[in-house]
């Protein structure tokens, strides 16, 4: 075999000595004819004998020397996978390709990430390799063209299910009338005719069921077995044996009625297609979080260049640019305030509802909203370096990572199919050569009985029917699971992390406390303060106004109004001068606070924002605004703890505020002062301790943590991005739904295990009976049908579940 040459990109070299060390290390490897490293270009050229070594060995060697090989990365969408076994086959095939360092398939998201050496392998090579396996790759650049492929798949599976149902119903009717208990039911003679049954069953078998034959062929071609093999094998046995019986019946003069099994094959295919329809529906809404995150970013920015203000696309803003942000506009990039004062709503990034006052020297975050003042901002981070871009990156990495899900059925099916086939062949041979030498029919019947009794209809139904019933009942409770894998994994959760704002609390500030000086009445003060704040755009002012109106107090327009940045407001109402704001504001106007300091500190210790009030230069009282706890949070957290779950609150708030709220809802564990990009790291810390973690949140800043967690739960009243990034959406916005989701998952998984017991034990226990010829094919068909009915009826019990609050 002739020598080959490859070029590797290397990072981490600090001097020419590093290059020399790499050269020596590579040159000493067996099979390497020549190795040279260009320090300036950070590249290594290696000539080698491919029969003795390969590129992956060079990469490993370079990494052992303390450097890193920089590979190209590409991400594909994958179409055509039917189970986890398909994902494993793609990974194995691509990993064996020369130049591919790693291949990672995410079956749930239907994506493939590959690291590769572009000098040895190309995207086209990878696409062609997987195409030969029966799958279709499309790069993310082409993803827009295929954005609705899942919707088309839903329509296709629904059409197949509808066709199969119409054709199967008469066949099912004939099977029911065979039983003595239902023999009184009317059955048209035409449906009993073998050729009519053949005409009804054939489209189901080869039109609707074509996908199973294609899938089985691809699996067997690649020396593996999946559910398609099981479905194709079982239905074909029943279908072709029925044709054989029909032909024999005709040869015998059409006397009596033959025992046919067309209905068994048709029912299996119909119900499995129904399961596939559910699976496609469950996956159809994944992977939209990234697009929605990017949609938050401002599209343009007002930039001052050469003394002229101009509007430029966001991509053209560079670090150091001075950006003008007007009231109501999005802050386009991360930066530092040079001039101006304003309150900035950072809830879409931080999750905290109360806007933050910004002035010279303060930092602002891209995609946040400037509420009420003009700001001049110096851009410090642009493009991929902004906080929003980092959140997008974290979500992408979390969603693209390989899910550690190995389906119980997929594992067993790989062994089950060949074992059953081999056993059936051995049984046939035993009967044909030993028990009844030369008697084909006597040998064929036990073999067919084994294949029919071991038919995978119950196996194929065991998981999807339970998931359909469980998720359907969950949906009625306001719990939307985005796929069977999430319904499965939720039952193993040990720790629940709750975001504070919008999850434990309501997520919007409210007027909570009013205290007035002895010389004033509460109604008078609320009228004056509400009227004074009426024209303010500040969210805290709006909370006061809404709170006053809720008490039925009428407001009037102030005759004069002045916002004092960083201090509060001054207004004239009914001829009286009203001051509302901070301690600094009171001191500025030389107003004695008359022992209000201790009361204010007490309010602040409770996590509230307190504001002082003065009327005509006299201290008049204190009002406080806070993000209040949801009425159901305390009881819901208690329910979680009763389920044996560790419950932790996670927030960007300061420790004092966080602990005050945690105490109010019965929590002892709090992680406070966490930045948006650190939330996912906190989840990973707990995971490294061996805990299965669920994250519950509603803000955009929660999206990375929701994606990293073993199970992400989004409050349905929260942001679309959090909902899309999560595995479960809690539509009611109530933390009781967290406990409900875990209970539903536990009950559903218990139901699935019961179904698998029916599917495997019931069917396989009859295989020895069939092997010795004591089980006629029609009895095997009835037993197979009964096992399917058992599975379906057991799954339907999930629809009756009532959760006790």
TrEMBL record:
Translocase is among the record's keywords: yes
Primary localization class, coarse: membrane
Protein name (Swiss-Prot/TrEMBL): Copper-exporting P-type ATPase
Catalytic activity: Cu(+)(in) + ATP + H2O = Cu(+)(out) + ADP + phosphate + H(+)
Subcellular location(s) per record: Cell membrane; Endomembrane system
Superkingdom of origin organism: Bacteria
Classification via NCBIfam families: ATPase-IB1_Cu, ATPase-IB_hvy, ATPase_P-type, copper ion binding protein
Regions crossing the membrane: 158-176, 196-217, 229-248, 260-278, 412-434, 440-463, 755-772
Naturally occurring in which organism (per UniProt): Evansella vedderi
Assigned keywords, A-Z: ATP-binding, Cell membrane, Copper, Copper transport, Ion transport, Magnesium, Membrane, Metal-binding, Nucleotide-binding, Phosphoprotein, Repeat, Translocase, Transmembrane, Transmembrane helix, Transport
Domain (HMA): residue spans on this chain: 4-70, 72-138
Enzyme Commission number(s) from the entry: 7.2.2.8
Membrane topology: Multi-pass membrane protein
């Amino acid at each position: 075999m002739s020598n080959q040459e490859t070029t590797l990109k290397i990072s981490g070299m600090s001097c020419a000595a590093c290059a020399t060390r790499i050269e020596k290390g590579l040159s000493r490897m067996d099979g390497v004819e020549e190795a040279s490293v260009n320090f300036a270009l950070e590249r290594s050229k290696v000539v080698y004998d491919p029969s003795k070594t390969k590129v992956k060995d060079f990469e490993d060697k370079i990494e052992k020397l303390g450097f890193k090989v920089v590979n190209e990365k590409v991400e594909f969408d994958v179409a055509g996978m039917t189970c986890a076994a398909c994902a494993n086959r793609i990974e194995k095939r691509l990993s064996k390709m020369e130049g591919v360092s790693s291949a990672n398939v995410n079956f749930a998201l239907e994506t493939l990430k590959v690291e590769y050496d572009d000098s040895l392998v190309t995207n086209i090579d990878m696409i062609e390799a997987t195409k030969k396996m029966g799958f279709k790759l499309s790069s993310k650049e082409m993803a827009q063209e295929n954005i609705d492929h899942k919707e088309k798949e839903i329509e296709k599976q629904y059409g197949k299910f509808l066709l199969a149902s119409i054709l199967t119903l008469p066949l099912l009717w004939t099977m029911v009338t065979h039983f003595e208990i239902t023999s009184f039911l009317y059955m048209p003679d035409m449906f009993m005719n073998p050729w009519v049954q053949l005409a009804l069953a054939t489209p189901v078998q080869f039109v609707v069921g074509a996908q199973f034959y294609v899938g089985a062929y691809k699996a067997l071609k690649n020396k593996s077995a999946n559910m398609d093999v099981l479905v194709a094998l079982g239905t074909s046995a029943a279908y072709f044996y029925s044709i054989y019986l029909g032909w024999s019946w005709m040869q015998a003069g059409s006397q009596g009625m033959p025992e046919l099994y067309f209905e068994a094959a048709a029912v299996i295919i119909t119900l499995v297609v129904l399961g596939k329809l559910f699976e496609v529906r469950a996956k159809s809404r994944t992977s939209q979080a990234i697009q929605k995150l990017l949609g938050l970013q401002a599209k343009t920015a007002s930039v001052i260049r050469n003394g002229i203000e101009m509007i430029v696309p966001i991509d053209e803003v560079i670090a150091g640019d001075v950006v003008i942000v007007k009231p109501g506009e999005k802050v386009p990039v991360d930066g530092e305030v040079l001039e101006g004062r304003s309150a900035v709503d950072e809830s879409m990034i931080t999750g905290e509802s109360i806007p933050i006052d910004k002035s010279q020297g303060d930092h602002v975050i891209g995609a946040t909203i400037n509420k009420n003042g003009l700001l001049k901002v110096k851009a410090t981070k642009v493009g991929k370096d902004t906080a929003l871009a980092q959140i997008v990156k974290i979500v992408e990495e979390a969603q693209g990572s390989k899910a550690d899900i190995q389906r119980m059925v997929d594992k067993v099916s790989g062994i089950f199919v060949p074992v059953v086939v081999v056993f059936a062949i051995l049984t046939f041979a035993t009967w044909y050569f030993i028990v009844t030498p030369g008697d084909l029919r006597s040998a064929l019947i036990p073999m067919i009985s084994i294949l029919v009794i071991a038919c995978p209809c119950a196996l194929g139904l065991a998981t999807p029917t339970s998931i359909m019933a469980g998720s359907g009942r969950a949906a009625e409770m306001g719990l939307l699971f985005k796929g069977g894998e999430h319904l499965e994994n939720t039952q193993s959760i040990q720790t629940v992390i709750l975001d504070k704002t919008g999850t434990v609390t309501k997520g919007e500030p409210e007027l909570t406390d009013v205290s007035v000086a002895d010389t004033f009445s509460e109604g008078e003060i609320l009228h004056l303060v509400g009227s004074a704040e009426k024209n303010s755009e500040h969210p805290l002012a709006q909370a006061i106004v809404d709170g006053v109106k809720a008490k039925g107090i009428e407001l009037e327009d102030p005759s004069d109004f002045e916002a004092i940045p960083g201090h509060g407001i001054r207004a004239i109402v009914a001829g009286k001068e009203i001051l509302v704001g901070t301690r600094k504001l009171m001191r500025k106007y030389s107003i004695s606070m008359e022992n209000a300091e201790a009361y204010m500190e007490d309010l602040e210790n409770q996590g509230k924002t307190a504001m002082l009030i003065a009327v005509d230069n006299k201290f008049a009282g204190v009002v406080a605004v806070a993000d209040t706890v949801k009425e159901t949070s305390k009881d819901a957290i208690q329910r979680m703890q009763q389920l044996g779950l560790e419950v932790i609150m996670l927030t960007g708030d300061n420790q004092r505020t966080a602990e005050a709220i945690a105490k109010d809802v019965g929590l002892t564990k709090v992680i406070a002062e966490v930045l948006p990009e650190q939330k996912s790291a906190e989840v990973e810390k707990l995971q490294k301790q061996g805990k299965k973690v669920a994250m519950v949140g509603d803000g955009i800043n929660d999206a990375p943590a929701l994606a990293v967690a073993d199970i992400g739960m989004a409050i349905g009243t929260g942001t679309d991005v959090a909902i899309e990034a999560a595995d479960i959406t809690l539509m009611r916005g109530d933390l009781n739904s967290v406990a409900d989701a875990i209970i539903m998952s536990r009950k559903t998984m218990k139901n699935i295990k019961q179904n698998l017991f029916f599917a495997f034990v019931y069917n396989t226990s009859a295989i020895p009976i069939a092997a010795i010829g004591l089980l006629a094919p029609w009895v095997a068909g009835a037993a197979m049908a009964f096992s399917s009915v058992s599975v379906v009826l057991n799954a339907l019990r999930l629809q009756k579940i009532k959760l006790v609050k």
